[in-house]
Design brief:
Layout: H1 22-40, H2 51-68, H3 72-77, E1 79-83, H4 92-103, H5 106-109, H6 118-122, E2 125-129
Antiparallel strand pairs: 1-2
Helix pairs in contact: 1-2, 2-4
Length: 136
């Protein structure tokens, strides 16, 4: 007989919640930005058209965070973006809003408790450490 699987506790209800380091968040953003520069090269010149990589970043966040809770950069740095209140995915509309606010830069710099930026608080999201298979 196997033991029942532990139900994950939403970050808002977990008194032991500790967010990942700023370094991991920044590393994920740098990886995602490089990927956005590469992708935007297919339809624009990122040096001349500064809007192209920003547009790709916003769309990347909408799709990857909304559907998978991780961007490629977050996957590599082992972090993910979850709903603060219920611990689930934030969905495409909230991920799109989060991407737009992140592109504005300033909301990401205004951090509060649990290293939640203004863009996190407005979209009811939080960055957490991603569990790797076999670890609890």
């Amino acid at each position: 007989m196997t033991a029942p699987a532990a139900v994950p506790v939403p970050p808002a209800a977990d008194p032991a919640f500790t967010p990942p380091s700023i370094g991991r968040r920044f590393g994920a953003l740098v990886i995602d930005w490089v990927l956005c520069l590469l992708v935007s090269n297919f339809f624009a010149d990122p040096v001349r058209d500064g809007w192209a990589p920003v547009l790709v970043l916003v769309l990347e966040y909408a799709v990857f965070l909304g559907l998978f809770a991780q961007t490629p950069g977050m996957y590599i740095t082992r972090i993910r973006c979850l709903s603060w209140s219920d611990g689930g995915r934030i969905g495409v509309p909230r991920a799109l809003l989060r991407g737009v606010l992140l592109a504005l830069v300033v909301p990401a710099l205004i951090m509060g408790a649990h290293r939640r930026g203004f863009h996190d608080r407005l979209t009811d999201s939080v960055i957490t450490t991603a569990l790797t298979p076999g670890r609890r």
